Amino acid sequence: MLPRLFLRDARLHRMLLAPSLVPLAFLAYVFAQAHGHDRAVLAGTMAFLAGLSPLWFHLRESSEGTLADLAALPVSRFAIVGLRYLEALVLGAAALLLLNLAGLAVQAALQGSLPALDHLPGSLGQPRVLAWLYFGCCAYPMPLVLRWGGRGLGAAVGIPLGLLSSLPILGTFGRQTDQVLRLLGAVDAVWQRVVARPGLEALLLASLLALSFLLSMKAFAGRDL
Amino acid sequence: MTEPLLHLLGVSKRFGHFALRDAGFALPPGLMLGLIGPNGAGKTTLIKAILGLVRPDSGSIRFQGRDLLREGPALRHRIAHVPDEPRFTPGASLRTLKEVHATFHPAWDEARWRELMGEFGLEPRMVADRLSLGQRTRFALTLALSRAADLLVLDEPTTGLDPVFRRELLARLADTLDERRSILFSTHITSDLELRADLITLVRDGEVVFTTSQDDLRETWGVVKGGLELLEEQGQALFQGLRRNAHGFEGLTRDLEGARRRFQGRALVERASLEDILVLMGRRKSDAA
Predict the structure, then answer these.
(1) Which residues are CB-contacts of B250 (< 8 A; sequence separation ≥ 6)?
(2) Is B37 left (phi over 0), alpha (psi -120 to 50) or beta?
(3) Is residue B69 part of a domain?
(4) Which of residues 2-61 of A touch B (CB under 8 A)?
(5) What value of ipTM does the predicted structure carry?
(6) Cα separation, B33 vs B210, whole angstroms
(7) Is 0.80 surpassed by the pTM of this model?
(8) Which domain holds residue B67?
(9) Which residues on chain B are in Cβ contact (under 8 Å) with A76?
């Protein structure tokens, strides 16, 4: 059933796919070339920006009133949630591939010859970075979007931004700079400890992804359309 | 006794300011059931519960003897649906929408779809969001009628249609009925149902007031029209619903023959139409003079 759902989205939302994937990937690569930015991070970011597409698919269906049609198909809500996660993965990979091709084309144009092939694929991102981007751009906001649509996405973006911006304000105006710095230092120390142990990092990431999927299931299964 | 094709029992659902309470009805195979009620009565909530779009707080919905709430995805290809205001992905052609739809329904009948498209004056290359409400409804009907579903659920399908097409559609729907296929038809254009429906379910304020046959409605429900002095003499308790104005009253009764005997020569007693029942049921207010 998932392949049929995937093809459905590919056909109905191709208007969203093309503008989000091709020009952004190309521009990002040109920008990275010109300014010498870390290609890996930028490529990963761009790939997962494209991976955001399933969220847009969902928001579009929600606002156009076609979400009920999707839910009334002979498929389970579990399959619909699985579809969104799968789409993020597939579209992210597609974006990486496009970026590779764009890179080859740009370098060929600039240098007059094809670059060494071993130089490009390896630079397009470490798996752990991509996995965290997958979590941040897709899995983290997904339960909120599935439950509350655009308001959910607003909350997913707005709440962390609000928290981050409130810390310096608290430090400056609340005269609690030391406490804020200590808090940030503690968070950083925990993070460093986790990333120093690949097994622990992988376990944390897997747990967060599983939790996100379970919350998404609960959020969408309980939603009246 | 034949097992109902669709059987709702004690279905309840609470939203913020609205509650569907203990709603139930049974639709045998081969019949058309008309779901009537004023706007906001709970008709669409009932339909959404059948389609799995709203999860009831309690109650059961059985389809062909199976639990629709638990086995919905496996059974839903046997239920076709036309919403009150069909909406389709902007920019998509009718052909694309049909192709996407058909992949999910194993019993898809392509020849029938083409035939219906022609009859309904639609072209596959048309773009869905440029269609009028009536055209969108027609297209939704082509999708629903090409699936060989056992239950056709229509939520106010005739609202955007012209009278000629409406009448043709009702005839066509009646033709699709057979010994295993049923239609659930929600509307407040009650004349549509008087033409074709076998059963009528009245929903009001989130409750199913009754489910009965058209024959029973014709034989037992009546409207009494008379002067106010008669109303005072006979009392209001006789009536299921009542409308008063400066000149007299209109009362809805469930005992047509009894009312004829009681008011003989003193008031006008006639059979109630579905519209009379819909308008008068539960009403106790006076009209402004």
Answers:
(1) B223, B224, B225, B242, B243, B244, B280
(2) left
(3) yes
(4) 4, 7-8, 11-13, 15, 60-61
(5) 0.81
(6) 12
(7) yes
(8) 6-213
(9) 72-73
